[in-house]
Write a structure and sequence with these properties.
Helix 1 (55-73) packs parallel to helix 4 (159-172). The chain has 2 domains: 7-156, Glutaredoxin, CATH 3.40.30.10; 174-222, Antioxidant, Horf6, Chain A, domain2 (Antioxidant, Horf6, Chain A, domain 2, 2-Layer Sandwich), CATH 3.30.1020. The radius of gyration is 20 Å and the shape is elongated. It has helices at 55-73, 86-100, 115-120, 159-172, 197-205; strands spanning 3-4, 25-29, 32-35, 43-48, 76-82, 108-110, 134-139, 145-151, 177-178, 190-191. A 5-stranded mixed sheet has the order 6-5-4-7-8, with helices on one face. The mean pLDDT is 92. It has 222 residues and is of the alpha+beta class. The protein binds benzoic acid. Residues 50-51, 54-57, 153-154 line the site of benzoic acid (BEZ).
């Protein structure tokens, strides 16, 4: 029953870009009907997987479930999606519980019509099947896409990296700071580079350390 509000998708017809509004949908999930708007006020990690009852997807689901409390502690909910039916989703979730002793606590969307997958660009256009790729969308509390990644079916995602990206998005949302390569929560953020000569002069006048320069400066620890 996935339905999709075209009136609420001003970016229909092209690939989703960063800072686009996430297309609004209403869909059947393993935990009842969910709309994207149910998640307003929270961060949301919306992720697709190629198909149910597949081994790599099963490892991702188990890892996501084990980290679900860490996502929630960052004010973020998890929401999965595949083109398989709700009955397939339910049987797979039940099998994961039985075989691996892991109870999946996040909903999984049924998208038989592929309307959500198409709106979000979760389908490889060269594919001959309905399988979605491994997409992840980080959607902020106002419904804006802040980050996205797409992996092929053959490469499982790192849940640790997804958590790291979410943590970095949260740490930098105050503005004027950025997370450097491999940043971790205990690490130092960098100041966004200056954009005016006044800012350059102010930076040059500041008493920076040896590894600082006008374009490269550590942010103050908050
Ligand atoms: C998997 O999740 O194991 C998988 C799915 C589609 C293609 C290859 C692997």
């Amino acid at each position: 029953m996935a339905s999709f509000e075209h009136s609420e998708n001003p970016v229909a017809g092209r690939a989703l870009r960063l800072n686009d509004p996430a297309p609004v949908f209403v869909a059947r999930t393993t935990m009842g009907v969910r709309s994207l708007t149910d998640y307003r006020g929270k961060w949301l990690v919306l992720f697709s997987h190629p198909a149910d009852f597949t081994p790599v997807c099963t490892t991702e689901f188990i890892a996501l479930e084990k980290a679900a409390d860490k996502f929630r502690a960052l004010g973020c909910e998890l929401l999965g999606l595949s083109a398989d039916s709700i009955y397939s989703h339910l049987a797979w979730v039940q099998n994961i519980e039985e075989r691996f002793g892991v109870t999946i606590s996040f909903p999984i969307i049924e998208d038989l019509s592929l309307s959500i997958a198409e709106a979000y660009g979760m389908i490889d256009e060269t594919s001959v099947s309905t399988a979605t790729v491994r997409s992840v969308f980080f959607i902020d509390p106002e419904g804006i896409v802040r980050a996205q990644v797409h992996y092929p079916a053959t490469v499982g995602r790192s849940v640790d990296e997804l958590l790291r990206v979410l943590t970095a998005l949260r740490a930098t949302e105050v503005g004027d700071v950025a997370a450097p390569e491999g940043w971790r929560p205990e690490g130092t953020l960098l100041k966004a580079p200056p954009t005016t000569m006044d800012e350059v002069r102010a930076r040059l006048g500041a008493n920076g350390g040896a590894s600082q320069d006008w374009y490269f400066a550590e942010a103050d620890r908050g």
